[in-house]
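Appendix B, record 7
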Amino acid sequence: MVSPATLLQFDVYGFRFVLSGDAPAAIEALASDFAFFAVSREGTEGAAQIRVRNAAPDYAALPPVRARVYTPRNISYLDGEHTLVDYHGRGLGRHHRGTGSFEITTLDPDLQYEACYLFLLSQLGEALDRRGLHRVHALGISVGGRAVLVVLPMGGGKSTLGAALLSDPEVKLLSDDSPLIDASGHVRAFPTRIGLLPGADGAVPAAYRRTVNRMNFGPKTFVDYRYFAHRVTPDAPPGFVCLGTRTLAPSGRIVPTSRLSALRRLMSDCVVGMGLFQGLEFFFQKTAGEILAHAPVAWSRLRASTSLIHKSQIVELQLGRDGSANARLLLDHVRSH
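Structure tokens (predicted):
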């Protein structure tokens, strides 16, 4: 268990943050999620401070400010340089926009963990976009040293397919849900945790599993990074982009498709970011000027997507009902081409 006095430091492609607080279980889970990016260095200047406080929030001490953003998870308020995030009475988040720090105060252990995890996803997305590294909502693996991205919507079966693919010892993992692509289409790893469908957790030892009661979607079991750390590869050049779709057929199929079809899918899954957590509660993009300021990011995402498509083989992956057969189908196709 992590000591409350411990400062854990991480560097995600130039975005640095530090974890601390008096909720060891939540901090340990977060440290596991981002273990691929853990670093040991002296000094924390310039790093975002992420603090977890195991206490009841003092709502009586809050200023009488008006709400600015409403989401199903929470309601956000502006208080000077701070964004206050009320998790519907369960906890209170405080984000200092100047320093990038975030503090969650709650007695709910699931909220302690999830509030920080989602905050980090939103901040990482913004910071990496500025560095020309863009998330794409897809399963990312490496086969024979080449990246294979399988683009599927939320609930489409990325984690199930990924688990089946990793049963092959030659397959390496880039990300279960959101690998990163740069301007040249090169794919970089973003491994955090792997979600499991109900009934699929028996294959993973209990020491590597944890169940989180999520704010929006109910309980889900995740596999800790340390269970699959030896299977992660840091990066891979473009290889395949597979446009995934589910079918009720007993067996899957792989059929040719166009680069235009791939661009259309990546427009939603990378350029717009559908399926990727955006963290709207932390950003107040209301004016025309603020919206236009993000246009260069959209263009950068589009360029990266176009480079990836241009350098990859494009296919449509029609998934059948047999998960193991889907994995064999994909691997046989990749290896034969």
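Remarks on this record: The chain has two domains: 8-130, 134-191+232-336. Helices lie at 24-33, 109-130, 158-165, 225-228, 259-272, 288-293, 295-310, 323-336.
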